[in-house]
Design goal:
506 residues; Nucleotidyltransferase, domain 5; alpha+beta; six-stranded mixed sheet; 23 strands; globular; seven-stranded mixed sheet; FGGY_N
Amino acid sequence: MFAGNKEFVIALDEGTTNAKAIALDGFGNVVAKFSQPLAIQTPREGWVEQSGEALISASLDVIAQAISHVGAENVAALAISNQRETAIGWYRQSGKPLNAAITWQCTRSAEFCETLRREGKEQQIKTTTGLPIAPLFSAFKMRWLLESTSEGVQLADQGEICLGTIDAWLLWNLTAGDSFCCDHSNAARTQLLNLKTGEWDEEMLALFHIPRAALPEIKPSSGLFGYTRGLKTIPDGIPVMAMVGDSHAALFGHALGEAGCVKATYGTGSSVMAPVNSAQCDIATLATTIAWHDGENIVYGLEGNIPHTGDAVAWMADSTGLSELTDAELAHELNTLPASVDSTMGVYFVPALTGLGAPWWDDSARGVVCGLSRGVKRAHLIRAALESITYQIADVVEAMQQHDNFHLSALMVDGGPTKNDWLMQYQADLLGCPVMRSDVPELSAIGAGLLARKALTPGTVADLKTLLTEHSEFKPDMARHQRLQKRWQEWRHAVNRTLWKPASSI
């Protein structure tokens, strides 16, 4: 079943705030996990970036710890899941970054987005790439990186500059520059990929002024990407057998893409993704993307991206003095405070801290707390922040109903905030469907590990079912579901207060 007697897959989850690595045994069990925090810089309003060197240092460190724990001689492969849309450029000869990595939260390209809208390019971009115009996506960031580098476009055209998503940056460093590749799922988030052909699109490259010579080769998410080489703490010759965006990896890790199992990752922001069997792109408020390429077939995903969910709770906790608590104390307060009050007393928090994502897509929107009255206390505000997560996810799920191939049988959830039982029950009651919480928090890493296992062993995706992790179920209270529909509509009114151009519906 494995490469010789090598049993373990080491899976990296390089996220926005942490780099985590796990060791997965041949039964899909997490036998070890290691983590390092990652810093975020905000040098200007709306700018969000990270050190490319710091991303590599933390990632290599946790990978090395995981390998050391199980023994390099027992490692069959590495797998990578990564924060998506974050873009970085580097010089091909030296490997030195052009600038900081521009993260998915950054809105520095909002003005260029508006220019493309005024020029009537949105439909062309959506039809080709499946993605709406938004600063979220990588092409805008790559353009900025080249324009901010002396002779950047010329050097990129000559192949002397590399541009990539974080999977490509990690692979480059793991292989000492031998492999310059990305996978289909990450390529699909750049706005440079033709969704139907699965290749870089010449018209999109011209539109964004991105030379093809600067971009990586696109490969299936499950398969050989290269071998480790030239690293002090990681042995040479370990194959990298999977690379995939973190939200896509979580969807795969939940249910291998089973129809009706919609995934919501609760993190700094949230990705709501449903597996679908076509590249239908006519839902203006949602993205159609490539979920993954399993080595045999492309699986598509219907997705809505929300920039501020866990981030919204963190902001409210900080604003109400809870950030001074230890992590354990804070988790306790976030579980007990919302349940200590019957409602928010009419308070709604719309966390458009750097704009609104799906299904609103308003870069100019800014956050609002409305409905304040004399009796509002900290518990009401914390509850309003937690409720805002559920409403935003429900807004995306409702928009998904427009897709011909969509149906909802369960919401599969993962991420740090899902540990909050109150939040999970509220989400189930609001949507009126079961919420299935992964009992293993490292789901993105597990999904990447399963894709690596698919590449290592003969068989189909269905053969991986025995390796899936357990879930805890939160069943909806349908009477409460009906009551919450009024609050959901009131939430919509609060959203309209933040929009640059108020909308009456999704």
